Amino acid sequence: MSVKLFSKALFARTGTALAVAGMIGLALTPVAAPAQTVAVPTADNPFGLPEDITLFGKADPDRRTATAIVNGFVITGTDIDMRVALVTAASDAAISEEEMLRLRVQVLRNLIDETLKIQAAAAAEMEVKREEVEQTYQQLAAQNFGSDPKKMDEYLVSIGSSPASLKRQIEGEAAWENLLRRNIMPFVNVSAEEVNDSLKRMNEAKGTDEYRLGEIFLSATSENRAAVLANAQQIVQQLQQGGSFVAYARQYSEATTAVVGGDLGWVRLGQLPPQLAAAARTMSAGQLQGPIEIPGGFSILYLINKRQVLMADPNEAVLNLKQISIMFPAGVTQAQAEAKVSEFGNFADSLRGCADVEAGAAKIGAEVVTNDQIKAEVLPPQLRDIILNLQIGQTTPPFGNIQEGVRVFMLCGRDDPKDAGAPTFAAVMDQLEEERVNKRAQRFLRDLRNDAYIEYN
Predict the structure, then answer these.
(1) How much is the pTM?
(2) How far, in Å, are 71, 280, 293, 321, 344 from residue 401 at the CA level?
(3) Which pLDDT does position 42 carry in this prediction?
(4) Which CATH number fits domain 314-415: 2.60.40.1180, 3.30.420.40, 1.10.3720.10, 3.10.50.40?
């Protein structure tokens, strides 16, 4: 799960009915009305709704005032604006007006859930202390802005958000963790036999493929299936246009893995629902697939990486690389650039090893940068796959563009990791417990929504 936003966020999302407020005046004098057929409840129409209904008052389903009062707590339009800014700042893609409207509705749902979590923690006398929120905020500042919280304050304001908005999000996450720790986790049990069976299956699967996947899960029922599917398709479209998978997973996914940007960790196909396993089997690192319908909803998958069970992970290899690059002068024509790239490619092919690089690069005016302690996993997936298949002294094909220059990498050394051992008993138990906590957490949040009094303005 590239992280552009600062904090983890656990938000579960489902559709929320809009309350209709307003007085309806009825005429006192009787008027003739056509007879109506009373609908009878059936399996396909459990509410017995007539085919033609008359709405009283003005209603436009595409225009909603994005404010709400949740058990007396007011969520304002400004709250939504600031939280939307955190999402859009993490996306390189332009967001259409239609997508922005959908995003604002979703963020309102997130803020309602966040408020319910904070209120539930307070009711259980498990309020998050201000000192805890400040400590987490300082940690995030250290991770992103070199221990200078003022820089993070300035950044948040510059994108249209605020420190208060992010701190409210931190409070909601911590409140939810407190509730799960007391109301869910003590009642989740995994036996030693289950763990040992899992370890046995893992050892039997040694050498088979396993996948590190990101997932965005959206729950759906037969009633809202079409709407949820449309929402998932819109998310996929935004991701394909450059949106941050991590940011979208944190805002939209209903799984507890939303807290880590949807990262499922390393899984084998047998651990996945058949529909997801079939999709993952055909994916390459960096590829996106979905929405995929599974029992209970839809999933969007992103393949972060792939390796073999209990075998050395090639992505853990430590590489010694030399980067050779050329730049183009201002005003260069396409023909001139292509000729220079061709010459540069011939030069790279002529190199007989790493010892030739510096001298050869000086002759053609190329720049050389050496990095002898870089892990393969930090390289872009497409480039990583190419480099891991190189022999010592070989180079990648040229890549880049006129604006930023063209370059090649030469592999000058590689230290492969040792074979990975089986995960520990404790690690497997933690994974099994997390799966069960995830399911119960979704039910817990659904109960909080059902018991809440929410008024939309």
Answers:
(1) 0.52
(2) 55, 32, 39, 21, 13
(3) 59
(4) 3.10.50.40
